[in-house]
Amino acid sequence: MRHESLLTLVEQYEIANNALDAQRRRVWNAIEAVEPGLAEELLQLFSTSDAASLWLLKASGANQPCPAQAIAEGGAAQVRERVLRTLHGSTA
Fold it and tell me: Fewer CB in 10 Å around end: N or C, the chain?
């Protein structure tokens, strides 16, 4: 038995998910363009641009912007600091 309403929900999810993936790739491409050094460091940390872009768009706290927003607002140095601390330990 087919469940049309469930099929519709799954199709809507797939459309929304594809749109989110495309937007996430656009954000990553923009980060590569405006902060290529930081993008390189992120690739060292996360290995793939997909993983790095997911991290860039995840808020780290209730009142903190996601790293991509922080970069857009001029906070690339602070984001880079976080990445370098993670890559090289807390002494970076």
Answer: N
Q: How far apart are CA 5 and CA 34, in angstroms?
A: 44
pLDDT in tens, 16-73: 999 999 999 999 999 999 999 999 999 999 999 999 999 999 987 778 899 999 999 9
Mapping DSSP onto H, E and C, the string for the chain reads CCCHHHHHHHHHHHHHHHHHHHHHHHHHHHHHHHCHHHHHHHHHHHCCHHHHHHHHCCCCECCECCHHHHHHCCCHHHHHHHHHHHHHCCCC
